[in-house]
Amino acid sequence: AKARGRNGYRFYSPSMTGEGVERLRLEAWLRRSLEKDEMFLNYQPQVEIDTGRLVGVEALVRWNHPELGLVSPARFIPLAEDTGFISQLGEWVLAEACRQMVRWQAAGLAVPKIAVNLSVRQFERGTIVATVDRILRATGLEPRRLQLEVTESVIMNTGDARTYINGLHDLGVGLAIDDFGTGYSSLAYLKQMPVQTLKIDRSFIQDIHQDANDEAIAIAIIQLGKSMNLSVIAEGVETDEQAAFLLRHGCNLAQGYFYSRPVMPDDLLRRWLP
Ligand code: C2E
Ligand code: CA
Ligand code: CA
Ligand code: CA
Fold this sequence. Notes:
Structural class: alpha/beta
Helix content: 40-55%
Oligomer: single chain
Strand order of the largest sheet: 2-3-5-6-7-8-9-10
Bound molecules: ligand C2E, calcium ion
Mean pLDDT: 91
Radius of gyration: 19 Å
Order of helices and strands: EHEEEHHEHEHHEHEHHEHEH
Shape: globular
Low-confidence stretches: 1-6
Number of strands: 10
């Protein structure tokens, strides 16, 4: 159950040369990362707290650069968003995650659901519904096995967001609001969206036992989810105490290092195959 060390990873961080030069080099490398096969996905289990049952996995992209080593998504996702590369990358992530689900199914591991992050930029070209539809058909994954994670900014900022969100819902895929509570969203607006899940951001879970505000926010999100008939999952759960707190307050779904770090597909298979 315990993760081996830090998963063997050391993420590259900048500041060896000037920021500007660094950024340009990184951009150029990033653009070629897919053709060079440097991207891969890790998968982090989502579990039911009371039973420990696997209810899903979240796909998280990793970039392994030959010189830099592993570059953190916290660094390259914003870069990919700024340069527009995110549409290509996002499409690759989606396709790879769906292919992996089908592979697990073939290997006898019925992962109930896969969650994939969508950037707000992926909604701007107006093709997101067609893209998801095409990938589902090409891979043969049942739509209900896919859950798309979007932030509040997608719900609130994109002009045609409502249309796209409804379109995705009509395909039969699930929708979750990621990092919930860290952005702005109007509850009235939220109520009109065909969303099934709220993800409590790690920042609220982290200090839940030291910070009364974080505790209050976490409880409020759980209550909100209940009253709107949404399922609520907490991310960044690292301790037994945090899990117990969540369960006590009516949240039975969690994801975090306490259960597992994001892992390679075979590790997931080894650990969860019945
Ligand atoms: P996120 O969507 O909020 O994903 C959760 C992040 O928290 C992941 O970081 C995960 O490894 C980390 N995490 C999970 N459990 C714990 C825990 O118990 N403790 C701590 N300290 N951290 C935990 P990661 O993989 O570095 O990804 C960072 C962010 O990059 C993600 O945040 C997401 O916004 C973005 N990202 C990652 N993969 C993709 C992708 O394929 N597409 C897009 N658009 N964004 C992605
Ligand atoms: Ca996420
Ligand atoms: Ca996020
Ligand atoms: Ca988060």
